[in-house]
Specification:
Helices cover 0% and strands 72% of the residues. It is mainly beta. Strands 1-2-3-4-5-6-7-8-9-10 form a 10-stranded antiparallel sheet, with no helix packed on it. It is extended, with a radius of gyration of 22 Å.
Length: 193
């Protein structure tokens, strides 16, 4: 990784190769060699950061290439209040493998934001977050979620209350499904020393 123009531009590159050999028995496709390369650039000017990366995977069984773009925002609004948010979109094209699979294009988008509030006089930390994701391929899925938490530190005792609400909608060729879920957590911990 490099940092150019006082870290305004941050190009990056990585490559990974894996070889899988079958010592006994057999699996579809036989021995597999996979070569993955990632090249991209991050433009960073606080409180913003924009990243674009291109990934290629060379494989006889499941070759693919993808483009991912993301935008981040992180700001300390005051001494006790902070906000962070991210938007991301990824498009992946799966090539034809030797097993006859592939030829599929997937698209995934996501957004999340979190607001944190610290109240030092009361040893209280509050957090509120929201998220949304959408994926489109042979099955389309949309997920929306809201999460909130409160944390108290009372000497050696810590108490955390978390609530999460999620709605998931899945659309396929033969059926549709909607799932609503609620989660509530209470965590109490104490330091012994």
């Amino acid at each position: 990784n490099l940092a150019l123009l006082n870290s305004l531009l941050n190009p990056f590159y990585s490559r990974q190769r894996s070889d899988q050999r079958i010592l006994r028995g057999a699996i579809p496709g036989g021995d597999q060699e996979t070569d993955t390369a990632i090249v991209g650039m991050t433009v960073q000017k606080p409180p913003y950061a924009i990243t674009s990366e291109y990934q290629t995977t060379a494989s006889a069984v499941s070759p693919s290439h993808s483009l991912r773009n993301s935008a981040d925002y992180a700001r300390q609004m005051s001494d006790t209040l902070s906000l962070s948010a991210r938007m991301q979109h990824t498009k992946t094209v799966h090539g034809e493998g030797i097993l006859g699979t592939g030829g599929l294009t997937e698209q995934a988008s996501a957004f999340n934001a979190t607001l944190n509030k610290n109240v030092p006089k009361k040893d209280l930390i509050a957090s509120l977050g929201t998220s949304y994701s959408r994926s489109h391929a042979t099955i389309n899925t949309d997920i929306f979620g809201v999460t909130g938490s409160l944390s108290w530190n009372l000497g050696t005792l810590s108490v955390r209350l978390t609530a999460a609400l999620n709605r998931s909608e899945t659309t396929a060729a033969i059926a549709n499904q909607t799932i609503l879920s609620e989660y509530y957590y209470l965590t109490v911990s104490r330091k012994l020393f």
